[in-house]
Amino acid sequence: MDGTPKKPIFRDLTAEDPEPEATEIESLCVNCMKNGTTRLLLTKIPFYREVILMSFECEDCGYRNNEIQPGGEISDRGCKIILEVKTPQDLNRKVVKSDHSSIKIVELDFEIPSQSQKGEITTIEGILDRSIKGLEQEQTERRKDNPDIAKQIDDFCDSLRQLKDGEKPFTFILEDISGNCHVENPNAPAADPQMTVSRFLRNEEQNHQLGIYTKAEVGKEKPKESDYGGNFLLKMLEEDEWPIEDLFGEVMQFPTLCPECGSPCETNMKMTNIPHFKEVVIMATVCDVCGSKTNEVKSGSGIEEFGVRIEVKIEGKADMSRDVLKSDTCGLIIPEIDCEVGPNALGGRFTTVEGILVAMKKQLSDGGDIFVDSTDESTKMKFDGFIGTLEDIISGKKQVTLILDDPTGNSYVQSLAEGDKVDEALKITKYTRSFDQNEELGLNDMKTENYGEECQEQEEAESAKS
Asked: What's phi and psi for 182, nearest 5 deg?
């Protein structure tokens, strides 16, 4: 050990670190077929994801090329954002799109397919402007050779300009199978009445587009039971090989990558039982390189039959100290301050009411300014005012109601009454999930009974054909 402090793999570009280390690789020049140099730099775009910056230069012919590639993990779900653009101010909303983002404008039946453009941070007006410039390319030659087609393109560009100038409202749809897309919400952290955000499970074809394959698909054969003792992450246990009592007393460790800097680290995982609730899996990760600490909670008993909506009145220190289990599918609402936090914002965690509020404040304070222009004083004042309101709630100066809405039924708030009774400040309501909620959880296509019959019938049909 040379005593040099470890640095994160994905570094922030700051004034304190003006010259981060770049990796240099000798590589082939596609212009002159001689060797040039490629420089790689791993960094992070705030409030978005990790990226790899690549710069190539050939000293023989002078050819240069720059490129950016995603360097973080792919989300386990795709994302679809539907925005009703009604005012000229909506055209200034910031948009983050990846290579796999597709864009649709419903009223014009216009679509920009995925992988047709590189990922970028822009605005809705910028997307329209870029589309117009792209359509107008080669129009001079097209008017000579195909005047009818050129006339249709000119008319369509005029329609796009009307939308760009804010003359007509339209529906803007941003869909990304990788889940790495974002449209600014000017009312954040309150819900946006003009925007709907939904997440969906990818199908097999979409996974293949992202380069995600199962072991069976890579090996072109179905996994055998003996494979589980080999390269599979999870090992199949024999009956009575590991009793449930031993599992509750065991702290397991597995290697992973730090979610902040991407450095190798370890995650500790343990099953525990929350009294008057159920079994849960607690996971904690500590990175020795950047010092990041994260904890996450997963349900240990699957999805409940009903969803749950928990309302707790925060009126004093006792309410602040209530234990809270928030699953990664649970959304948070504080109606008194018009605050709504989606299920993916804070993830799953086991904490207290105060801990939830502190986590909300920290996440807003750390990343909330990235989409606030330095000259937009009204937006900054509104944002600072909201942070001050959260501080008043945490300090007990303001009484509010915290609502946890979890369609999987895997969230919990401690009751201050004895036994299984619910105290007066706590209200628990169970409800039947809607079709859309089941669709987002992947339950509509899930078959739990006679699930082998369809496969057997398909195999018999294929054997009969052969």
From this structure: -160, 140
Strands (E), 342-415: 349-352, 400-406, 412-413
Cβ burial of 99 (10 Å; 0-12, 13-18, 19+) is middle
Distance in angstroms (rounded) separating the CA atoms of residues 184 and 362: 19
Q: Measured between alpha carbons, how far is 183 from 342 in angstroms, rounded to an integer?
A: 14
Q: Give the model confidence (pLDDT) of 300-337 as tens digits.
A: 667 888 999 999 999 888 899 998 888 888 889 999 98
* CA separation for the pair 298, 444 (Å, rounded): 22
Long-range contact list for 131-135, CB < 8 A, 24+ apart? 131/160, 132/157, 132/160, 132/161, 132/164, 135/160
Of the candidates 214, 279, 284, 277, the one whose C-alpha atom is nearest the C-alpha of residue 251 is 284
φ/ψ of 103, rounded to 5, equals -125, 135
Cis link prior to 189 (omega < 30° from 0)?
A: yes
pTM of the model: 0.56
Q: Hey, which bits of 78-180 come out as E strands?
A: 78-85, 94-97, 101-105, 110-112, 120-123, 170-176
In sequence order, what are the beta bridge partners of 82?
Answer: 173, 196
Supply angle C-alpha 455, 461, 464, rounded to 5.
140
70-125 pLDDT tens trace: 776 777 888 999 999 999 999 999 888 888 889 999 999 999 998 887 777 789 99
A 10 A CB-CB count for 50 gives: 21
Q: What is the pLDDT of residues 247-286, one digit of tens each?
A: 566 778 878 888 777 778 888 888 777 665 667 788 888 8
Rounded to 5°, angle at Cα 303 from 180 and 76: 15
**Quick one: residue 179, left, alpha or beta (phi over 0 = left, psi -120 to 50 = alpha)?**
left
* 128: number of Cβ within 10 Å: 23
Give the contacts of 372 (CB within 8 A, at least 6 positions apart).
379, 380, 383
In 3D, which of 21, 38, 7, 19 has the Cα closest to residue 262?
A: 7
Which strand ranges, in their side-by-side order, compose the sheet holding 349-352? 349-352, 323-326, 412-413
> What's the full length of the chain, in residues?
466
Residues 135-144 as b or e (16 or more Cβ within 10 Å = b): eeeeeeebee
Classified as helix, coil or strand, 120 is strand
